[in-house]
Design brief:
Blueprint (H helix, E strand, L loop, with lengths): L1 H20 L11 E3 L4 E3 L18 E3 L7 E2 L12 E3 L7 E2 L12 E3 L21 E3 L7 E2 L12 E3 L7 E2 L12 E5 L8 H4 L7 E5 L19 E7 L17 E7 L6 H4 L7 E3 L7 E2 L12 E3 L7 E2 L12 E3 L21 E3 L5 E2 L5 H5 L13 E3 L16 H4 L3 E6 L4 E6 L4 E3 L2 E5 L3 E5 L5 E2 L7 E3 L5 E3 L8 E9 L2 E12 L3 H22 L11 H35 L4 E6 L17 E6 L1
Parallel strand pairs: 2-3, 3-5, 4-6, 5-7, 7-8, 8-10, 9-11, 10-12, 12-13, 13-14, 14-15, 15-16, 16-18, 17-19, 18-20, 20-21, 22-23, 25-33
Antiparallel strand pairs: 1-2, 24-27, 26-31, 28-29, 28-32, 30-31, 32-33, 34-35
Length: 606
């Protein structure tokens, strides 16, 4: 009986379908497939070169994809006013005339993907006020013209990617008052117009993929206050994120992946207090400094996969009070210490697989939580020490945790006293080498209680071997220096003293000569004004004064000697000299006195 009833129902259904298919207005076009109950006509893969005849006027879904239709003329589809979905994807459409979709007042979905369209003129989408999805991706469109979407006031999803786009007009998106999703990908765009994006004030999701844009400007997204998800993916020319790039946004999800940024954009993330999901995967970020995410107090997921990470500094994740998932897989991390986190109590999923992990006491916190912590099906493995290489962390029994996962406290070698006396301007160095497991980090504390590390820049630095280097000593450098060797097992200290005296005379000349030459070279290359300073101490001043006084007294003594000799000679000799000279008489008029003749000049010297 049940089988008989089933056969009856099947026969009745077939009869109904046949009746519907034979009903007036539902004669299915040749080579097409129709579903009258859905008022759907499918003519895909039929090698059609135009819209076929015989399509019922009450059709709501029309599929003409994967054919050879080259052109859509004005009014060609006006016979189907009840169309709701229209698919022309994967044809060879090169031209769509204005009015081609006229009279389609109920159309909600229009797909023109993968055609040969180079330009869509204004008016093509005229009167499509109810359209909610438009896909014009994978064409050859070069430019989006002003007002080309102005009639699509209810459009919510727009796909424009994989075109030859080089320019988006400033008013191209005018009229898209309801747009929620926009995808721009695989284009030739070299910049984003802040003015064009500012017209999408209701946008919630923006995908920007495979673009040749090298710079994000401060005002690019400033007017998109309702944007929830922003995706910046595959921008090989992007090397930096400016501090105000995300100003004005209230994002909950942010993707910055496959770019060439080399550091966590901490300043740019500062304004994203509502961020819940952050993905920075596949960027060459070598290290995460302390406090890189300190303003993202609501962040729950952080992904940094394949970023060439070498280290996570202590407190690198400080501020992440609600972190649930951390994915650091496929990196170069040798460890992940508990001090990296603000708190590990909220952590539920941890991915540190495909990292060269050193299994020592720094990973003990993961072992202690391995039964409740989710590793995403990819448990982390030990790469060293050799005896446990290749073992998964969650496989270790509790009884051997303190056998393998241990650390050795640092111990500074060669602890002989170092006391250096130097003159100002001399170079000074102090040795400090330590051993331990893991290898201790070396830092120094100055007499002014300032921490000096290998990252310190300037006149006083610490080399990679732990040596303290002072390039040219100054009097204020005098005092006791403390070497601090640290690892998770503890620390060790060592002291060295420095006394800096005033420069020697030879040192002054050499230092001044070197200073003048160096500053001359800097001036020659940098074209800057140089003020040369000569440093003189009290000894130098006294020596210079003494030399000047001796020279002056010698000159005075020599003068007195000359006067004495001259005075002695004057008392013994008396010399008289007398002379008379007569002018030669000349012919001519007499002088004014009226007297002529010879004139005499008398001179006498005693």
């Amino acid at each position: 009986m049940p089988h008989t009833m089933q056969r009856g129902f099947l026969l009745l259904a077939c009869c109904c379908c046949c009746l519907l298919s034979l009903a007036p207005g539902w004669a299915c076009p040749v080579r097409c497939e129709c579903l009258p109950q859905l008022k759907s006509v499918s003519c895909s893969r039929k090698r059609l070169t135009s819209v076929p005849e015989g399509i019922p006027t009450e059709t709501r879904i029309l599929e003409l994809n994967k054919n050879r239709i080259r052109c859509l003329n004005s009014g060609e589809l006006s016979s189907f006013p009840r169309l709701e979905e229209l698919d022309f994807s994967e044809n060879i459409l090169a031209s769509v005339e204005p009015g081609a979709f006229g009279n389609l007042f109920h159309l909600r979905v229009l797909r023109l993907r993968r055609n040969q369209l180079k330009l869509i003129p204004q008016g093509v989408f005229h009167k499509l006020a109810n359209l909610t999805l438009l896909d014009i991706s994978e064409n050859k469109i070069v430019v989006l013209l002003d007002f080309m979407f102005q009639d699509l006031r209810n459009l919510k999803h727009l796909e424009v990617g994989d075109n030859d786009l080089v320019y988006i007009s400033r008013k191209a998106f005018s009229g898209l008052l309801s747009l929620q999703e926009l995808t721009l990908e695989k284009c030739n765009l070299t910049d984003l117009s802040a003015e064009s994006l500012s017209r999408l004030q209701n946008l919630e999701l923006l995908r920007l993929r495979h673009l040749s844009i090298a710079l994000l400007e401060d005002e690019n997204f400033q007017k998109l206050s309702r944007l929830q998800l922003l995706e910046v993916d595959n921008w090989p020319l992007l090397e930096d994120i400016p501090p105000n790039a995300f100003q004005g946004l209230n994002l909950t999800s942010l993707f910055i992946t496959f770019t060439n940024i080399t550091a966590v954009p901490t300043a740019a993330l500062r304004s994203l207090g509502h961020l819940v999901y952050l993905n920075l995967s596949y960027n060459p970020i070598g290290t995460v400094p302390r406090g890189s995410f300190r303003d993202l107090t609501r962040l729950r997921e952080l992904h940094m996969v394949g970023t060439l990470l070498v280290s996570m500094e202590p407190q690198a994740l400080s501020g992440l009070r609600q972190i649930r998932l951390l994915n650091l897989s496929n990196n170069l991390l040798s460890t992940l210490e508990e001090t990296t986190f603000h708190s590990v109590n909220t952590l539920e999923t941890l991915r540190v697989d495909q990292n060269p992990l050193v299994c020592d006491c720094r990973l003990l916190w993961i072992l202690q939580r391995r039964k409740t912590l989710n590793f995403g099906g990819q448990p982390p493995m030990c790469s060293s020490p050799l005896e446990i290489q290749g073992n998964a962390l969650h496989d270790f029994p509790d009884s051997v945790l303190f056998e393998y996962f241990t650390c050795q406290k640092p111990k500074i070698r060669n602890r002989h006293l170092q006391h250096v006396v130097a003159h100002e301007g001399q170079a000074v160095s102090f040795q400090c080498q330590a051993e331990g497991e893991p290898v201790p980090s070396i830092s120094w504390v100055s007499p002014q209680h300032r921490m000096i590390t290998s990252k310190s820049l300037g006149r006083v630095t610490v080399s990679s071997s732990g040596m303290l280097e002072i390039r040219y000593a100054q009097a204020r450098d005098s005092g006791t220096y403390i070497c601090l060797a640290t690892n998770p097992a503890g620390n060790d200290t060592y002291f060295a003293t420095l006394t800096v005296k005033g420069p020697s005379i030879n040192g002054i000349l050499d230092a001044n000569r070197t200073s003048m030459l160096g500053e001359f070279n800097d001036t020659f290359h940098n074209d800057t004004r140089v003020f040369i300073k000569f440093t003189l101490d009290l000894k130098t001043i006294l020596v210079s004064t003494a030399m000047g006084c001796i020279t002056f007294l010698g000159v005075v003594l020599f003068c007195f000697l000359l006067l004495f000799v001259w005075s002695r000679g004057r008392g013994q000799h008396k010399n008289n000299f007398a002379g008379e000279y007569s002018f030669r008489k000349v012919d001519g008029p007499t002088s004014a006195s009226g007297q002529g003749g010879a004139r005499k000049f008398n001179m006498k010297m005693i």
